[in-house]
Amino acid sequence: xxxxxxxxxxxxxxxxxxxxxxxxxxxxxxxxxxxxxxxxxxxxxxxxxxxxxxxxxxxxxxxxxxxxxxxxxxxxxxxxxxxxxxxxxxxxxxxxxxxxxxxxxxxxxxxxxxxxxxxxxxxxxxxxxxxxxxxxxxxxxxxxxxxxxxxxxxxxxxxxxxxxxxxxxxxx
Length: 172
Known about the structure:
The chain is 42% helix and 19% strand. By secondary structure, the chain is α/β, with parallel strands linked by helices. The longest helix is centred in the last third of the chain and has 23 residues, at 149-171. The N and C termini lie far apart (62 Å).
């Protein structure tokens, strides 16, 4: 049996957790999250909720799980030194090299589909509604970084214009 510790609680980590559990190898998943992700919790042997900056708690959780290797989500865990702490314990962990997508929270008052539709209609920006990735994706959109830099810059300028229009309308 291989024990895997997952550190992170976002949609990306949920997808990773599901992929891990589909492996032909016999794996047990242990997840350390800053907030409960019910989808991850459901397929984990054990979960712990805590701060990614609490390296002592993460290390204790990893030791308790007898982790053979770790999957560390980007952003907060990386910035908090989680990968280095796990490596010091002898648990192989590598930071993600890059991401092809950005997950962003939708503004208050929108579902992910409504926000994606609004961006398409109002600003000619194509994003993917997060609810297409399961219930935990609701409230988020996914933006692709796989397009040419000049197109990405144009899209970001359109997004800024959309935001400014929305602000000016709400001030009236």
